[in-house]
Automatic annotation (TrEMBL):
This is Peptidase M20 dimerisation domain-containing protein. The keyword Hydrolase applies. Its cofactor is Zn(2+). It comes from Monilinia fructicola (Brown rot fungus). InterPro entries: ArgE/DapE_CS, Bact_exopeptidase_dim_dom, Peptidase_M20, Peptidase_M20_dimer, Peptidase_M20A.
């Protein structure tokens, strides 16, 4: 067994084990392997809201070590710190000593807030992360174990990577680029209704800020209302023409958050809005120019900032036996650098993810194991 701690500046080998390719990596009678449903339950029961993924990561590190896999830990050192003060870690696991593998199977262990506890309702499993994306994590690990037991994957074939921070700008996957690895194929786990996603929309985020002058609402001429500055721009942005494509449909704009002023009888000194634009065609820079042009035409003195941007993301869908789909949400696919083939697949429906009724069917979880095994075997053919 080998445990390695990685950071951009540190590579520490704590222990080294010898590897015998003729010895089974996972022994069902002694390894402490959990069934698919037990593994999924264990993951969902651990709260892992973005920034607070430590306990989920620690569970995976312990579990994967028990399977006699080599485990590497990568600290995530982005500016966005853990809300709990605990370490945030990506977890990489593989067979033996060959960290360079042909295929990578990956998903994320963080969830959106708030935490909802695990609950079994008949043939359904409810709870935060049950779909997005601990369903994928559990199915991926189970598929990996099954293929090892069947002798279909060996040292140097496939690695597992579970990252933090996907829900918050993909900080974990961006850090994973520092691992110094590349792959022929990467299989990403996200809820795609058991279909192969042929791609997903891009995104750019907009932050508008208005700075006014506070005063008594009875004397509006003595102040400058920041809300009145912001509202015309939001109205025009909601009406602007955005590009579309045959594959992804319309580019959409969502005014997700608006905040301004302190009281009804006070002229608002500050106002802000946060907007997410899902890009169906074009580049973030082209969309950002459209936004700037619209804001400028309103004549309002607003500060405009953009964060996180990428255009539509192509994924491969050349494996027989899968239905295909395009999705409107963002993933870690564009955050991992390289010219690898990219497959996006997993159990569950994105329409219930991030909700208070997040759930999936047990049969879908079981089918995902079969799907991941098929994708892994295809990648090695």
């Amino acid at each position: 067994m080998r445990l390695i701690t990685l950071s951009p500046l540190l590579f520490l080998v704590n222990a080294v084990h010898s590897f015998d390719s003729q010895t089974a990596i996972i022994d069902e009678t002694t390894s402490g392997s959990l069934s698919l449903l037990e593994l999924h339950k264990s993951l969902v029961e651990i709260g892992s809201i973005s920034g607070n993924e430590h306990d989920a990561g620690a569970f995976l590190i312990s579990y994967l070590k028990k399977q006699n896999l080599t485990v590497e830990i990568q600290d995530v050192d982005f500016i966005e710190s853990s809300v709990s003060g605990q370490r945030r870690q990506n977890v990489l696991a593989y067979i033996g000593d060959k960290r360079k593998t042909r295929t990578l199977v990956t998903s994320h262990i963080d969830t959106v807030p708030p935490f909802w506890p695990y609950e079994r309702r008949g043939d359904e499993i409810w709870g935060r992360g049950s779909v997005d994306a601990k369903g994928s994590v559990a199915a991926q690990i189970t598929a990996y174990q099954d293929l090892i037991l069947a002798g279909k994957i060996r040292e140097g074939d496939v690695a597992l990577l579970f990252v933090v921070g996907e829900e918050t700008l993909g900080v974990g996957m961006k850090q994973a680029n520092e691992l110094g690895l590349s792959w022929e194929t990467v299989i990403f786990g996200e809820p795609t209704e058991l279909k192969l996603a042929a791609g997903h929309k891009g995104i750019t985020s907009v932050h508008l800020t208005a700075k006014g002058k506070a005063g008594h609402s009875g004397y509006p001429s003595l102040g400058r209302n920041a809300n009145s500055m912001l509202i015309p721009a939001l109205y025009e942005l909601g009406r602007m023409e955005l590009p579309w494509s045959e594959k992804y449909g319309n580019t959409t704009l969502n005014i997700g958050r608006v905040d301004g002023g302190v009281a009804a009888n006070v002229i608002a000194e500050d106002a802000m809005a946060k907007i997410a634009i899902r890009i169906a065609a074009g580049t973030p820079e082209e969309i950002q120019k459209l936004v700037l042009d619209v804001v400028e035409k309103t004549g309002q003195d607003l500060e405009v900032n953009f964060t996180q941007g990428y255009g539509p993301v192509h994924c491969d869908s050349d494996v027989e036996g899968f239905d295909t789909i395009t999705v409107n949400y963002g993933t870690d696919v564009p955050n991992l650098e390289g010219d690898h083939k990219r497959y996006l697949y997993g159990p569950g429906d994105i329409l219930v993810a991030h909700s208070d009724h997040e759930h999936l069917k047990i049969s879908d979880l079981e089918e995902a194991v079969r799907g991941y095994k098929k994708l892994i075997e295809h990648s090695l053919a």
